[in-house]
Amino acid sequence: MRNGRAWVVQRGLDFRTKPLVVFGWVLGTHFGCEVGRGDGLGHSEVFGREVEIRIANRAEKLRAGEKIAAVDERGWHAEAPVGASYAVATRHPKFLKAKMTYSNHRIGILGGAGPLASAEFHKRLIELAATEWGAFQDSEYPEVVHVSHGYPGLTEAGLVNMAAARDTVTHSVEFLKNAGCRHVAVPCNSLHAFIPELREQFGELVLDMIDATAGYVAKSAPDRPVLVLGSGSTREGGLYDGALAARGLSRLAPDESTQSRTNALIAGVMLHGASEGLDAALSELIREVAAPTTSVILGCTELSLIRPRGVPNPVFDSTTALAHATLGALAG
């Protein structure tokens, strides 16, 4: 039961040459089940089969007239004998044991660059914990310590004064380390200019978003040149050059006109947040400057709030790449 609506799924997944009926929104996405929407009052009609839904100990119960049994990779298990009134969806014991370890790890988020961008990263981290790792109960999500600062010397053009921002970055990482964080995510491409010295001081505590994004691109589109759209300092510092080159990928640098338009998009998010107008502007920019055979990295986390539409290019989002890397580091 989510937002007052009941979700039920049915799919012809064959265990005993009969259709499988299982609870919902988690199993449904994994098995590719067709979904029927309930009326929020406890009943739902799915392909002509009435299913009564009740809540008991946070488990969903479905009326089932045949033997059903399923376990998906996120740990949901559903089983009922022939003739049973209900099939109960619960967590698989092995999954719960793994989750106990996972949820005891604490993540630090070095936020504020900018505030909307780091809030979006936090949101995606939680969403991925649910959809990719199966977090359901509040206690199954990772602990997060999110600090949000203003950074002197950081603008829509990127890191224009490293000396001004250095102390804030270093002290914030130190704070998160002392708060017991096992890993620190920095959802800002421009601030990754500090990664070499942060790694020297703090070791592997600080995750590398640039490397995570380049790895994701190399895995998904290994034979394409890559256009990185980000801040001016990300372009000028060549922050993606080493990570892409190490994977055999070539970076295409934006020209001055493209960089100016990219800076304007970043400033637009900083001023107004996401909007359909910014979506359209980013889409137009990509169509104009990137050949269809080119991959595009949204190498500024403000750009991650904008959704390019109708472009032929594979577009890779550094915010999502960092969220995947963060959860992967916790599970490793």
Can you describe this structure?
Helix 3 (115-131) crosses helix 11 and helix 9 (256-272) runs antiparallel to helix 10. The chain has eleven helices and 18 strands. Helices cover 38% and strands 23% of the residues. The protein starts with 6 loop residues before the first strand and ends with a helix. A six-stranded antiparallel sheet has the order 4-5-6-9-8-7. Strand 12 (154-155) and strand 13 (158-159) form a beta hairpin.
State the gist of this model.
With 332 residues, this protein is α/β, with parallel strands linked by helices. The protein is built from eleven helices and 18 strands. The strands form five sheets. A six-stranded antiparallel β-sheet has the order 4-5-6-9-8-7.
